[in-house]
Amino acid sequence: MNDIVTIKGLKYGLQLTFAKGASFDDVKANLLDKLQSGNSFFLRGTTVFIPKGYFAEDQNEILRRMFHRHGMLFSTDLKRQNISAPSNEIAKPVVKTIVNTVREPVNDSANLMVINRTIRGGQEVKSNGSVLICGNVNPGAQVIAGGSIDIRGTCRGFVHAGAFGDKSAFVLADRLMPLQIRIADFVARAPDEPEDVNKAERAMIKDNMIVFEPVAR
Hints:
Layout lengths: L4 E6 L2 E6 L5 H13 L10 E3 L7 H13 L3 E3 L2 H4 L13 E3 L14 E4 L7 E5 L2 E4 L8 E4 L3 E7 L2 E4 L9 E6 L3 E4 L2 E3 L11 E7 L2 E7 L2
Parallel strand pairs: 2-3, 3-4, 6-8, 7-9, 8-10, 9-11, 10-12, 11-13
Antiparallel strand pairs: 1-2, 5-7, 12-15, 13-14, 15-16
């Protein structure tokens, strides 16, 4: 049972591979056991990648929600994001001047957009899936995601996770101080100062409201 899931550390997260012949139920049970046992690999805010096409879409959705409940991002698109490539070869994200557009939901929440730069005021990032930003989100910037948002820096802009109604989505940042934060249809503003400045914070929906809690990276 312990060898069903193999974990490989990457620069931007963890890559999982599975024992030959292991069923989905075996993989799910093994992962759940690792998550509940406090496995040191599975820290909150970590992005977990699995091979694209290994499981059916409905099975990927089950895993995505399982990891989200434990404060992690999930993706099946490691190759598309070029995570293992040198930094100067990372795929360029879509960053553009803010415009008024209509956002149509796309069933693509397992995909992950990785951005290796600060999002400055007047810029907007949109993704149908989750977003990982290795930089700050400055005042006047917007990040809108169909999935969750993980900011490896300070967030002082506008962030909207679960933009198409996913209430299991969350927003995580080293310092979470947005002008406004939205998760699905819920709206809130972060406290002026984090409860613990030495810890990252996560915003999530609990009891029909957005709550903020410190988390360990």
